[in-house]
Design a protein that fits this description.
The structure is a homodimer.
Chain A (H helix, E strand, L loop, with lengths): L4 E4 L1 H9 L6 H4 L3 H5 L5 E6 L2 H7 L5 H11 L4 E6 L12 H13 L4 E4 L10 H9 L3 E7 L8 H13 L4 E6 L6 H14 L4 E5 L6 H11 L3 E4 L13 H7 L11 H20 L13 H5 L3 H13 L6 H14 L9 H14 L9 H7 L12 H8 L17 H8 L6 H9 L1 H10 L12 E5 L1
Parallel strand pairs in A: 1-2, 1-8, 2-3, 3-4, 4-5, 5-6, 6-7, 7-8
The complex binds cobalt (II) ion (CO) (2 copies).
One cobalt (II) ion binds next to loops of chain A.
Chain lengths: ~450, ~450
Amino acid sequence: MSKLKITETALRDGHQSLIATRLKTEEILPILEKMDEAGYHSLEVWGGATFDACIRFLNEDPWARLREIRKRVRNTKLQMLLRGQNLLGYRHYGDDVVEKFVEKSIENGIDIIRIFDALNDYRNIKTSVEATRKYGGHAQICIAYTTSEVHTVDYYVEKVREIDAMGADSICIKDMAGILMPNVAYELIKRMKEVTELPIELHTHCTSGIADMLYMKAVEAGVDIIDTGISPFSGGTAQPATEVFAETFRGHERDPELDMDILAEIADYFKPIKEKYRAEGILNPKVMDTEPKTLKYQVPGGMLSNLLSQLEGQGAADKYEDVLNEIPRVRKDLGYPPLVTPLSQMVGTQSVFNVLTGGRYKVVPKEIKDYVMGMYGQSPAPVDEEIKKIIIGDETPITHRPADDIEPEFDRLAAEIGDLAKSEEDVLMYALFPENAKKFLENRGKPQVEEVEEYHINLVI
Amino acid sequence: MSKLKITETALRDGHQSLIATRLKTEEILPILEKMDEAGYHSLEVWGGATFDACIRFLNEDPWARLREIRKRVRNTKLQMLLRGQNLLGYRHYGDDVVEKFVEKSIENGIDIIRIFDALNDYRNIKTSVEATRKYGGHAQICIAYTTSEVHTVDYYVEKVREIDAMGADSICIKDMAGILMPNVAYELIKRMKEVTELPIELHTHCTSGIADMLYMKAVEAGVDIIDTGISPFSGGTAQPATEVFAETFRGHERDPELDMDILAEIADYFKPIKEKYRAEGILNPKVMDTEPKTLKYQVPGGMLSNLLSQLEGQGAADKYEDVLNEIPRVRKDLGYPPLVTPLSQMVGTQSVFNVLTGGRYKVVPKEIKDYVMGMYGQSPAPVDEEIKKIIIGDETPITHRPADDIEPEFDRLAAEIGDLAKSEEDVLMYALFPENAKKFLENRGKPQVEEVEEYHINLVI
Ligand SMILES: [Co+2]
Ligand SMILES: [Co+2]
């Protein structure tokens, strides 16, 4: 078997998961030449929540960050995460915006675009996959992993065939909730390898405590690439530690051949940065805790804690177990949507409503109506007919690709933002996050208003 | 293969590793009946640092804690950790004290005594093993795991034969530093199984990030028992999470058959307790971090951070790498002692001296002299002849069992403490921790002096 490849996640998912995506470009740049020498397959550095966080919290141009990173990383591939037709934003965008965004991502330095759709409805990623290939990028298509009656190994193998047919360059099993069990992964990867030549990458989170064992069995099954984070940005809600896998497989046939001395230097670089965010309270110590209830309820850790605080806010904490038992029923009603943003929030809210309002589907949020109307794409299994009737009455759901209903919109958006945009990248920023991008572009170049410093005085009497 | 057994460590190693052994008896008792129903093989509840912590920090009688635990745990075995001739204290004790301590531990409720010697010199555990058997306990003998030229799989297999010959009831591979690599464990356990019928238990710590994979490969190799902690007292410097292994092997041939609902209840019980200790600062968030440097340098994580702060204290932090490189040389000179308390501190200090004093072994602490004199037992390999000459000159090391030089001392200690001791248990408390036991016994029954409450005022100006 070939050498195991490693995607380093510290610069995207690592800090997104542990410190709310707050890593600054000035904290990233000084270590990049070193990271470029470590022997990584790729560095995940962009996409996901980083774009939004740059504009919203850091007063940084995300495009400029990408260009600065690319300047310093000459040998290692740069990778990003893209939510298909949603790009990095919160709605479906027009195909012209999607294509332009992909073009500009590649032009500014990205090599590999990891593309996923929450429902695994690949019509929602078609445009971004095609654009990636058109502009010379590597298109990695995700299987968003979940468990249900219909989400069998056979189901996923069928998805692999779809991915192959779309012309992907590689496949990612995206276990965003950390619920893929090691033995299931072993079988899944073995089966996938029987039907595809494409490299298979595995992505998980440590939240439930299963991640290291998952990677071990995946490597034994022949997975090509795993996602890990350098130790200070590993564990907890983030990925397993890079050094651990470099050491575990050192000298074995799958040896990833990472440079242990360089990994130690990278870890030493990030340690004080992590300590700073810990001291500032941005690294909440709870994110490092193991939450195996995720395995028991098949519900992501973050969703569990959100539900509990939602219920507590309404003085209904005693209904927690009822809601946890309602979730699988709602999932079944809705055709087993994977519990990933935004579907996890939608299913969670509907479950709370079903328990608290004294009747199932007496109250239905607009998002669930849109979902049943097919506006998010096709559900993994059909929505239950009776429930559908309750939710949308006699209306007929759409069966075409949701983005087919969206007119081209780049030119309109460019006109809207006008002179504030100095480049197509600026227009795209505005397309994704209209309010915050506008604020960012208006203030660009102006001297930063100094925040008034707060003096904390800790008196012990 | 038989069902995998689980030793739950939360009530000893879990809180010892994460919150400095501060769990109070009143926090332990309410959940014990529940823990008794979970399906554990054993609960580790006593020994290690818990005895000392009860007297020193909690104003609790450790013997009373044990009796209260035993009352509530009717079906599950109770387990403790004992440092051979050191018992739970800091010196070698007379054989009569050792025997009495073991007798009273079993009489007060212990079923399984895990016994270890830092050097794996089993003459140092002979008395405690024999006493355990004499008083009807289960004697588990440890292999303290370390790496070196002499610590080969063959070396450990030879240790297994010794353990077998001593009449042990089971064997524990004690990987206190978290450096046992998964593939090494696989081979080691397979080889051990060829030469012994005794059940094999594996104990590790998550510090280096390797623990879950270690357990997975150990289970595949046929290990009988693994040590895990319920999730709130798992991970970091403690053991892997119990629930994770219960879920991972559910439905497999090695299914530990733990009750997942009960495990969830136990976790829910301990969560707010953990939060309390976190809020009080007793749970240092850093203990949850992964420190893979342990794997690179084969030096326990705690020792790494101690060394660094020791050097920083002397303005010599720039010598850190030199000291890390000196440690393996010192270990070689001294016949490869395992880096476990107190040997880790001794080797660390000697390495610092060798680097900072401008000459190797120019300064030698008394403990190292004693070690070379054979006062700690036999080193795994002989001490280097030249180094020996430098350290002890023409003196001749002892070759007999160190405790052979200790007279019986129980009666003398009983006379010393006099009427303050109301039982043999009290005398043993005094034997182990003379100063703190005396204070504890003097204040027993007196009303507790209320600590003056501190008012913390946090002003933000
Ligand atoms: Co992720
Ligand atoms: Co331990």
